[in-house]
Specification:
With 353 residues, the chain is α/β, with parallel strands linked by helices. It is built from 11 helices and 15 strands. 35% of the residues lie in helices and 24% in strands. Strands 14-13-12-11-7-10-9-8-15 form a 9-stranded mixed β-sheet. A hairpin with a 3-residue loop joins β11 and β12. It binds nicotinamide-adenine-dinucleotide. The site of nicotinamide-adenine-dinucleotide (NAD) has 26 residues, from α1.
Length: 353
């Protein structure tokens, strides 16, 4: 059995603990949460009480008891935990973003690269984007000419996120572009490859220095294709989080309004159809309330894949996406912020720089 430790027992840490518990209860993974740790001991105790394991009073004590660590602290806490876990050779699941700055993200990625690892860029496992990627990469509707991805979320210092660190640039690294839309930048890289240039404008209406609540990013590609990302943190509490994508290929328009199952709509000159996304069949075995089924499946899929890889015991096995993929997205985000600081001037964007 893989012994899992959870560091950071807030919103997403609790979600991971719940998902792991449900996977284990259904016999879908051979793993269990055995230890929790949080800078706030009451949070570690609460998660252990509800989802398994025991609260560890220190990071070192947690690391001594586990085979794999889920790093779910606020973003500025990832580096120290990842380096400590990697120094012991433990497998690491690290939440996105890797770190607040590109320099620290490089250090997180370097440490992760030494151990089996996976990054929490969960959209990589969403059936709707997998279907879009398959179609785009097949080239059957020609090349993408223009892609529009818009992402809106209520400013996540309230409602069910209830975190205060997301208004502190030292802890979060920035606002909606890095904290939330690193997912979108990663999806665009997956679909379209590395951009050649990036230009961006950002704004901070809510008044927290360094925390962009609007980002409008234009990415250009070597074949002349263009993508535009609009990312907004607003105050419409009835709109929790929503993504819409349109991909204009030469011979078809693809679009989706739902960032997990879709469906993906496809319109060509002579047909219009949908490609339905479906959760994996095993997700039906998870005993969870119906209203949580979709969200649980979205996180259970990458969790199970990572644990299955670890159980397979492949030396150096890495989960998906890897630290290298995450770091490439960070490089694009870093260029976007540099462009915004320069009034929107295009930045060259070779991700290997
Ligand atoms: N992949 C996703 O879908 C997703 C969703 C939400 C959050 N996240 C990411 O997960 C991370 C946590 O976000 P959250 O919403 O759970 O925040 P949160 O504020 O709810 O929880 C963070 C927890 O980390 C603890 N913490 C901070 N530093 C620590 C340290 N050094 N050691 C131990 N505990 C520490 C805090 O006390 C807090 O309980 C962030 O990096 C965020 O970007 C990812």
């Amino acid at each position: 059995m893989i012994r899992v430790g959870l560091v950071g027992c807030g919103f997403i840490g609790t979600a991971h603990a719940y998902v792991l518990q449900k996977l284990a209860e259904a016999g879908l993974v051979d793993a269990a949460l055995v230890a929790t740790h949080d800078a706030d001991p009451a949070r570690a105790e609460r998660v252990a009480r509800h989802h398994g394991g025991e609260a560890a009073p220190s990071l070192d004590e947690l690391l001594a008891r586990v085979d794999a660590v889920w790093v779910c602290t606020w973003t500025a806490g990832h580096l120290a935990v990842v380096e400590a876990a990697a120094a012991r050779g433990l497998a690491v699941f690290c939440e996105k973003p890797l770190a607040p700055t590109l320099a620290e993200s490089e250090r997180v990625a370097a440490a992760l690269a030494t151990v089996p690892h996976q990054v929490g860029l969960v959209l990589r496992w969403a059936p709707v984007f997998a279907n879009a990627a398959e179609i785009v990469h097949s080239g059957r509707y020609g090349r993408p000419q223009a892609t529009v991805l818009r992402d809106d979320q209520y400013f996540p210092i309230q409602g069910r996120y209830a975190s205060s660190w997301r208004k502190d640039v030292a802890l979060a690294g920035g606002g909606t572009l890095v904290e939330h839309s690193i997912h979108d930048v990663d999806v665009l890289r997956w679909l379209l490859g590395d951009p050649e240039t990036v230009s961006a404008r950002t704004a901070s209406r809510h008044g927290y220095p360094g925390i962009d609540d609007v980002a409008a990013v234009t990415l250009t590609y070597p074949d002349g294709g263009v993508a535009q990302l609009t990312s907004v943190w607003h105050r419409v509490l009835s709109r929790e989080s929503s993504r819409r994508i349109e991909i204009f290929c030469e011979e078809a328009l693809l679009w989706a309004d739902d960032d997990y199952l879709g469906p993906l709509h496809v319109q060509t000159s002579d047909s219009r159809h949908t490609v339905e996304g479906a959760p994996p069949e095993w997700a039906a075995e998870l005993r969870v309330p119906a209203e949580l089924a979709s969200a649980v499946a979205a996180y259970a899929t990458p969790t199970k894949a990572f644990l299955d890889g670890l159980a397979g015991g492949r030396p150096g096995a890495s989960g998906h996406p890897s630290a290298a993929e995450a770091l490439a997205a960070h490089r694009v985000v870093d260029r976007a912020y540099r462009s915004a600081a320069a009034g929107g001037a295009p930045e060259r964007c070779r991700t290997a720089d």
